[in-house]
Amino acid sequence: MALKENLQVPFVDLKIQYRSLETEINKALANVIQNTAFIMGPDVQAFETEFAGFCGVEHAIGVGSGTAALELILRAYDIGPRDEVITVANTFIATAVAVSGVGATPVLVDIDPETYNIDVSKIEAAITDKTKAIMPVHLYGQPADMDPILAIAKEHDLVVIEDACQAHGATYKDRIAGTMSHAAGFSFYPGKNLGAYGDAGGIVTNDGELADKIRLLRNIGQSVKYHHDIVGFNHRMDTLQAAVLRVKLRHLAGWNNARRKNAALYTELFSDSGIIPPFQAEGTDSVWHLYVIRVKNREALQQQLSDHGVSTVIHYPIPIHLQPAYAHLGHKQGDFPLTELYADQIVSLPMFAELTEQQIRYVADAVLEFAEPIS
Ligand SMILES: *Cc1c(COP(=O)(O)O)cnc(C)c1O
User: How many Å apart are CA 106 and CA 96, to the nearest integer?
Assistant: First the structure.
């Protein structure tokens, strides 16, 4: 069977979204510039209020990136050298980098075979007397299995910090990602479901004391101008980014629904094909930051798709424990077998709200033509 048409399908296309909001976004940016409100301008606080409303939490705090968000939460809990934070081997490296950033040690756990999120049955074995926190990741937009994680944390008196950097608006048993634990970090990196026009991130929490401390920490410890209560950092959110995010937040729910529809069509087209589509755990509603399948001939498939105009990406090709940056953890090949196996099989297909049905059908046809199913 030859493909009937020849389309170009990018992995993501941020230009379509910009064109649909061009007037509004340009106006919002011009407003910041005309008022020279570059640092902690009114849009930052307005975005914080609006994002807290979107998540249904008391406090949202705008910061410079998702990595900074996670790091600031850890710092606010005084987690540092000699402490351990349990997280998952299959994630973007920034999860671990945030832990290292405060001087603590990331302790990795392998993944659940179906969801590719942290395997909750392996968490307790990773707890030591140095463990201070568990940092589950809602990878690809699908929430981790939070109830068992919260139960383990309660029993061992640990903080839970959600890495919600890929999960803006996802739900787990009707609770919104980022609101189920002590605090959560979000990324507004341009390609995320809610993306700024540069680096930006956010923290959400219902703990007012924690929020106050994080507000100080992100802004060089300053409570009143030139009054510094603690030694802080410069991790502020740019006002220009906040202005863009305010415009885009109004569209996030609609974009997430479009992604859900796109994912459902892919999954329908792959049914009975042997291609392993993403698994949706009972009670979770993913926001499909990524649509990740598993196949036997990943490299060959990527090449064929590329030759037919379809861009794909691997999230992530080298697990954290096998990265040179984390050689000091002393891990070796075989330590997290499922993470390693899947790292060689996964491929992320084009996924964004504005994908057309024709593009999805074309990508699926190409995958069905060139992919070798696993076993
Ligand atoms: C994007 C991302 C981060 C880091 O966010 P930045 O804004 O790029 O610093 C952390 N964790 C996960 C899972 C991510 O996808």
Answer: 6
Q: Which ranges of the chain does DSSP label H, i.e. alpha helix? A: 14-34, 42-55, 66-76, 94-101, 146-156, 208-218, 239-269, 298-307, 337-343, 357-370
Q: What is the pLDDT, as a whole number, of residue 375? A: 78
pLDDT block averages, 10 residues each, the chain of length 375: 80 97 98 98 98 98 98 98 98 98 98 98 98 98 98 98 98 98 98 98 98 98 93 97 98 98 98 94 97 98 97 98 98 98 98 98 97 92
Split into its structural domains, the chain has a count of 2
18-51 pLDDT per residue, tens = 999 999 999 999 999 999 999 999 999 999 999 9
62, amino acid identity: G
Report if residue 340 sits inside a domain.
yes
How far is the centre of ligand 1, averaged over its atoms, from the C-alpha of 27 (Å)?
28
Nearest CA to 366 out of 317, 311, 316 is that of: 311
CA of 276 to the centre of ligand 1 (A): 25
Indicate which CATH number applies to the domain containing 33: 3.40.640.10
Pair 189, 259 in one domain: no
- 68 CA: nearest ligand 1 atom: 9
- 96 and 132 fall within a common domain: yes
- Taking the centre of ligand 1 as the mean of its atom positions, its distance from the CA of residue 244, in whole angstroms, is 19
Same domain, 159 and 260: no
Ligand 1: residues with CB < 6 A are 65-67, 91-92, 94-95, 137, 163, 165-166, 187, 189, 199, 201
Last residue of a domain, one of 249, 272, 298: 249
Domain span at residue 56 reads 17-249
pTM here?
Answer: 0.98
CA of 320 to the centre of ligand 1 (A): 14
**What residue type is assigned to position 212 of the chain?**
D
In this structure, are 187 and 323 located in the same domain?
Answer: no
Q: From CA 264, how far away is CA 144, in angstroms rounded?
A: 20
How far apart CA 281 and CA 144 sit, in angstroms, is 9
pLDDT digits (tens, 9 = 90+) for 328-343: 999 999 999 999 999 9
Last residue within a domain, chosen from 228, 249, 270: 249
Q: Which atom of ligand 1 is nearest to the CA of 289?
A: 15
In the reported structure, the alpha carbon of residue 368 is separated from the centroid of ligand 1 by a whole-number distance in angstroms of 31
Q: Is 4 inside any structural domain?
A: no
